[in-house]
Amino acid sequence: MQDINFPEPAPDLNSPANVGTFKQLFAANMGRRVKIEISLFNGALQSITGDLYIVGETYVGVTCADKVYLCDIYSIKFVTFF
């Protein structure tokens, strides 16, 4: 995988403000295989499957082969963990 400089991941995802959020769920399952379905601007759903790589304040990164896919955490509609 190529070198990509990611900003620092979200600080404390177990703080009271983050309990029960997607961010906390993703952070607790880093490295697991996941399928994330996101809503596109035209209303269609796009599916991304790979290993959960990084969780930021407003984004999630998934690796698949030698690529990293980032998605806006607010556009996530469905998540499946394998």
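The above is record 1. Record 2 follows with the same two-line structure.
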Amino acid sequence: MFERKIQNTITEYFNGEREKILVIDGARQVGKTYIVRALSKKHFKNYVEINLKDDYDNLKLYENIKTTHDFYIQVSADSNINLNNRDDTIIFLDEIQVYPHLLSMLKPLNQEKKYTYIVSGSLLGITLKHTFIPMGSIDEVKMYPMDFEEFLWASGVGKNVIDYLRECYLNLEIINESVHKTILKKFKEYLICGGLPDAVKEFLNSNIIKMRQVHEQTHNYYSDDCSQYDIEHKLKIQRIYEMLPSYMENKVKRVQARDVDNKKHARMESYADEFEYLIYSGISLNVNAVSDPKFPLIQSSSKNLIKLYFNDVGILSNILFKNNIRAILDNDKGINLGSVYETVCAMELKAHGHELYYFDSKKVGEVDFLINDYDNLNVLPIEIKSGNDQNNFRAIPKLVKEDGNYKIKKGFVFGNKNVIIQKNNLITLPIYLIMFV
């Protein structure tokens, strides 16, 4: 079993008072079911797993359950084990989004304290947004593909090495060159395989063909999963999703409403349902534009100027390069890896709990990412460089200029070189150190 950071959250829940039910929300194939199953079996004598999507597609035994009593009877009939009490029995409700009425039932189930529960779903974000959930009944946790640090753990990189890198990041100290070369190579491998656990497993087994099959299948799952919509909405969702790589390769990377239906005067508001699905399902990461970068960023963000990234960089690198992994590993000068680098950084920042924004100003220019710096009640701009020229930027120095208009205290530029330089308020760092932001 790959070590995942969410293990700590789940273990703390199992060992705590369990006053609310833990709900794990994430896209398909990010590893939710596997990690919940493994930890549940470790902590509880009796383990019951109910895949509600399988039930919905077949017997629909849970479709008309309206009371907790009916629920207990059905679970007992399904489990084939002697259910006891909440200290030794856990019930895992997987893919609960297919039965929203069971989400509303979680509060009385938890209040009766008959058993312990844990819940997950792959399209849960959308369901939660449109379902009444009694206040104080759940703790929702987002789960993402494996981040770069988790990939390093899986790849056998010692935690002492990661601790050394963290100290270099915090103290702005240059990294040992041999360590830099090793970790940069691992970072490029991560660009290839991404963080879907099944893809990581195949990559570590040196089976690139099977790894790419995981990427291809997952990409198809994500495209097809919007089946709860009517055909018109479904086709628009799929159209936007399939256009993401082309947007990332454009000079202007934000999504253009006119491209969805080839309507010149289309407005973003016309596709609110489509964007809601792509974002709340977890298959796309949204980055909203900000023209006035002041803390907190949500106050000045624009919902109509949006960039979308795939939730996993392996899906993108499969679309762009298929099995030609040397294009990434060898840093081919003829290949533009800008969209790949930006995608992996969006993944990393999102997995660390950051809401993502980008700076866009005709007068000043564009900066790849802005995040809220809650420690300093300020804004942190981040620029990503995929090539060898880490000094080719226009806008970010103006944002962090000490006597400038924006009062931003520092900014980061991440690139491939082994340099850690602070010039005025701008700090240049190796790309992989973004795992500590």
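Residues 231-249 form the longest helix (19 residues).
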